[in-house]
Amino acid sequence: MTTRLPIATQQAVMRCLRHYIDLANNYLHTSYPEPKVSYRQRGTTAGTAHLTQWEIRLNSVLLAENGQTFIDEVIPHELAHLLVYKQFGRVAPHGSEWQWVMEQVLGVSASRTHCFDVLSVQGKTFPYQCECQTHLLTVRRHNKVLRKESEYRCKKCGTLLKPEEHLD
Ligand SMILES: [Zn+2]
Ligand SMILES: [Zn+2]
Fold first, then answer.
1. What is the 147 CA–ligand 2 centroid distance (Å)?
2. Please, which residues have CB less than 5 A from ligand 2, an ion?
C-alpha cells in the first residue's frame, strides 16, 4: 500500500518542514534539528509524531492524493507535537501547550483533526513493536489485544508485541 512519491512532493515536504523548524528555532531561541521524515504511516492516519525518535511519519497514500493541502496541514501539526515534547515533556496531546506552539510559534490555526478522504486507505492496521522491529496488526488482532484475549510475539526475537507509542 505504499505509493511511490514524486521527488517534487518529497521536496515540498522538506521545504515546509524547514520553514517551520526555522520559525520555531527563531521564536524559541533553540537549535532543534530537522526531524526525520518517513513515509510509512499506514491506515487512515495522516501522520504521526514519534517523540523520542524525533520523527514524523506521513501517510504516502493520503499525501499523494492531497498534495500541498496535506503538507500545509499535517507538517505543522506533527512538528508541533515534537516541539511540545521537547519544551514541556509529556503533556496532553492537543492541550494548551500544543495550541500555543501551533498558533504563536508556528503561526497556523490549531485545528486538531485532518479531514482527508480516507476511502482509499480504509484497510486499517495498527503498529506494534517488539524489541527488533515494527509489526502491523490487523483490526481483528488489535481488538483481541485490547480485550486481553490474545497476545502476540515476534517470531524473530520472541518478545511480546506492544502497541507503538505515538501521537496522531
Ligand atoms: Zn522482534
Ligand atoms: Zn495531533
1. 25
2. 168
Cβ–Cβ < 8 Å for 76, 20: yes
**pTM exceeds 0.85 for this model:** no
| Range list of H helices, the chain | 7-28, 60-88, 96-100, 139-146
| Cα distances (Å, whole numbers) of residue 88 to 32, 33, 34, 93, 152 | 14, 17, 19, 11, 34
For residue 42, the model assigns a pLDDT of: 85
Q: What is the pLDDT of residue 123?
A: 67
Most confident by average pLDDT, 25-39, 58-72, 110-124, 151-165: 25-39
What is the per-residue pLDDT for 3? 53
Task: Tell the CATH topology of 7-119.
Answer: Zincin-like (3.30.2010)
Judged against a pLDDT cut of 50, whether residue 1 lies above it is answered with no
Contact between 59 and 1 under an 8 Å Cβ cutoff? The reply is no
Domain map of the chain by residue range? 7-119, 124-163
CA of 157 to the centre of ligand 2 (A): 32
Q: Which residue out of 34, 55, 73, 78 is catalytically annotated?
A: 78
Catalytic, 151? Answer: no
